[in-house]
Amino acid sequence: MESTLKRTWAEIDLDALEHNYRTLRAHVGENVKFLGVVKADAYGHGAIPYSRLLEELGADYLAVSSLDEAMELRANEIHLPILILGYTPADQVGNLIDLHVTQAVTTPEAAKAYSAEAVRHGGTLKVHMKLDTGMSRVGFLCQGDHFAQAVADVTEACRLPGFDVEGVFTHFAVSDEPDKPESVEYTRHQLDLFRRTFEAVEANWGRKFAIHHCSNTGATALWPEAWMDMIRPGLLQYGCGEFAGQLGLKPVMTLKTTVSIIKNYDPGTTVSYGRTFKADRPIRMGVVPYGYADGFFRSLSNRCRMMTDYGPAPQCGRICMDMCMIDLTDLPEVKEGDEVEIFGNRISVNEVAALANTISYEITCAVSKRVPRVFIRHGKVVDRELMLRF
Q1: Measured at the alpha carbon of residue 175, what is the angle toward residues 174 and 179, in degrees to the nearest 5?
Q2: Predicted TM-score (pTM) of this structure
Q3: Which one from 39, 126, 130, 256 is the annotated catalytic residue?
Q4: Cα 387 from Cα 104, distance rounded (Å)
Q5: Does residue 112 carry a catalytic annotation?
Q6: What is the mean pLDDT of residues 177-186?
Q7: How far apart (Å, rounded) are the C-alpha atoms in residues 56 and 306?
């Protein structure tokens, strides 16, 4: 069902997505595969429309966090290879095989459990081996005294029955921090350890992995030696983050709302919960239907701004669940019903993230399910999503 309300909505520019994809492909060269990370509903941008576009454009792989996310893609006739980066219970191996979904293998125990289930199911599970080279999260632990055991464990996992071992990968912790010498050194250490580990496994196994990949957003932007066989940029493909501008990428999501009410207040009037804002002059205050239930962090209260067609409007008072207030005193042309940009082309999501002391990823992922997504291509609305049940 389509919302009939022009309240708060996210416009997803599919032309910008296409531009970003082509720009990143040109950046890394035609011999490097492209994996589109579409977990968390494509970082809030809409996994289904984006995946369809990537398939149309000739991408090589998709990545999600869970089997449920992979099932959603398959149910919507997305045929690209899909890699699950996160945990899948072993009793779901049959579903993985039936849906032609690739699973990350992160421990010797998981490898044995997946193998046994694949054999029991009578099929073959495509897998990528995940190496922990310093992220200290998931993967076969390779650091220091664990190196030899990791090589032995991964080699054994590669030889298990019921597996089609396609790839090996790792994840960088600080590849996006080029201004910190210790971070550059750590990324170089991770890259070297990754290479030494998979080369040792390949020597023992007697085969080579078809796909070696480790380039997240930071490495895609800054570390050509890490591109290897495939890149897997995250937020970078959506035109967000500090490297997007450097690479000529465009923001894909523009979050908009409307001015629902305008009221005039006397000096001394306090606004919203806690009375944290007090007018020091006659003030013309607009109310917009955008609050923390829509994904607007309450910590941004009295700290951020929104963009009207006539200039920026400071946000005033505590952000409420369903609405907030903006100061229109110096913008007399703004009237009720006018559109207001929360972030997008005129106010960068990076600016909003910095004010909230967080990262752009969290801002786009936080845009809630009650905010409709409107997908635009060639200047026309081609799809809409509203993730509410009717």
Answers
A1: 85
A2: 0.93
A3: 39
A4: 29
A5: no
A6: 97
A7: 35
Look up tokens 């409007």; give the residue.
313
Question: pLDDT band for position 1 (50/70/90)?
Answer: very low
pLDDT digits (tens, 9 = 90+) for 187-217: 999 999 999 999 999 999 999 999 999 999 9
Residue 153 parent element (H or E): helix 147-158
Catalytic choice (180, 208, 263, 273):
273
Model pLDDT, residue 386: 83
Q: Output the CA–CA distances (angstroms, integers) from residue 354 to 298, 308, 351, 367, in the order listed.
A: 14, 21, 5, 17
Annotation says 21 is catalytic: no
User: What are the backbone dihedrals phi and psi of residue 306, each rounded to the nearest 5 degrees, phi first?
Assistant: -125, 160
Count the helices and strands in the chain (H runs, E runs): 11, 21
- The pLDDT of residue 2 is 53
Instruction: For residue 173, give the DSSP letter.
Output: S
How far apart, in whole angstroms, are the C-alpha atoms of residue 83 and residue 66?
A: 9
Report helix, strand or coil for 202.
helix
**CA separation for the pair 186, 39 (Å, rounded):** 26
Residue-wise pLDDT for 324-374, tens only, equals 999 999 999 999 999 999 999 999 999 999 999 999 999 999 999 999 999
What's the rounded Cα separation, in Å, for the pair 343 and 322? 18
Q: What is the DSSP string of 317-339?
A: S---SS-EEEE-TT-TT--TT-E
CA distance 45 to 253: 7
| Tokens found for residue 124 | 């073959």
